[in-house]
Amino acid sequence: MRYEAGAAPVTSATTVMTGATLDGSDRAERTGRAHPGADTGHAGAGYVLRTATADDLGGARAVMLDTVYRDLKSGYVPRWHADIIDPEAAYLRPERCTLLVVEHRGEIVATGAVRDRGPQAPPNPQWVADRFPSGSTAQLCRIYVRPERRRHGLARQLVRELGEFAARAGGYTTLYLHTDPAVPGAEPFWRSLAREVCDERTLPGGGQGIVHFELPMPALGSTDTPPVK
């Protein structure tokens, strides 16, 4: 990306899957190359998905920075990536935000987050910003998986858990994300889960070249990612 859920109150310290390992129940039935945030297959024993703590921030930051340099090709840009440098302020402190990590044998190998703001205009089209206002929009972001851990269903499981967090948090009416289709596998992965709202490549001048998506808000207690309508 080029710039970068009523139940009891949910905070960023709420554990999503304490002590659990991911399994084959989230197998992604699709093909195509993997990328940060595009997984297929299933995870074996030893993967633990949970809410990040302060002790996880160094590992999470490393996954994010490696991704923006290696896969997104933008490198660190302060106005786009300030949340990567200070994920505690961006995701752990705000009550309706969260950062999830996947740990494997003591190493953070994947990340995913919810932020409580929608896309801003500019640089996004004004009508997209109006459709997804901050406060009522849960934006999924930083869904990144280390290359050697891709094709294990981690990204799909992160999306599922982030959506359920947004539903439990209350006050969110929509789930939004954007992706850079120049990254191999990004576009088909998100199209398998979400509905396209705006493909900026079709705008005059090509816009930023990104694609905006909306995902269905899961029902509380749901165990599966809702189907795209």
Automatic annotation (TrEMBL):
InterPro entries named in the record: Acyl_CoA_acyltransferase (IPR016181), GNAT_dom (IPR000182), NAT_camello-type (IPR050769)
Keyword Glycosyltransferase: no
Top-rank taxon, per record: Bacteria
UniProt keyword list: Transferase
Pfam families the record matches: Acetyltransf_1
Keyword Transferase: yes
Residues annotated as domain N-acetyltransferase: 47-229
SUPFAM superfamilies hit by this protein: Acyl-CoA N-acyltransferases (Nat)
Region spans: Disordered: 16-44
PANTHER family reported in the protein's UniProt record: GNAT FAMILY N-ACETYLTRANSFERASE, LD18367P
Protein name: GNAT family N-acetyltransferase
Organism, as annotated: Streptomyces durocortorensis
Biological classification of the source: Bacteria, Bacillati, Actinomycetota, Actinomycetes, Kitasatosporales
